[in-house]
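hey can u check if this looks right to u? its 216 residues, i copy pasted from the old doc so theres a chance i mangled smth
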Amino acid sequence: MKRPLRLLGGRRHQSPVGTGARPTTSLVREAVINFLAPRLPNCAWLDLCSGSGVMSCEALEHGARKVVAIEKNKKTAQICQANLLATSKGLKTSQNSVEVIHQDVLYWLKNELNTQSLNANSKESRDRFDLVYLDPPYDSNLYLPILNALLKGKWIKTDSLVICEHSAKHDLSTPEDWEEKDRRLYGTTALLLINPLLEKSSFDTDSMQPQIDQAT
């Protein structure tokens, strides 16, 4: 059974019920799209623990060139794929690609064949992900293992940005080998924005909204 949601642009989006999925609220989605606006056109977007794919659909609607979504739950992954395909087909441009992978996120990130394929040649190497949205179950211990796997597998670039959605009730520390760019609070949801400490990031947080957004 599914319940409809709406993307920021008004398009209907299906969301699963009874699977433990927790769609990102419209308040958080709007905030994310607003502060990522300069980086979304033509970006490569990776959605980890994607759920119904609502954040990936928003990214597509705002110019993402490539979207890869990883979801462990089979039924949820099917809904995610339907949502992304419908969003992609509804856009004026067809110059984008979407892929939904039904797999455990850590297994996929650590899979040697995936990593080898990504780095098979210089073209693929340049096509690492620009933006990563990480939204595992709030009570999981997946944040650090996933972030470590992103670095080890070379899935991201020196100026890539990772957005970690987590519960505002629990502080999420910035791990070693990452630089904290910003923290934001939207009611019961918090976001941690980080990039890898490989070299100075080209991402300028001064161009973003005020450091903490409070919402009730």
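Strands lie at 2-6, 12-16, 44-48, 66-71, 97-102, 129-134, 156-167, 178-186, 189-196.
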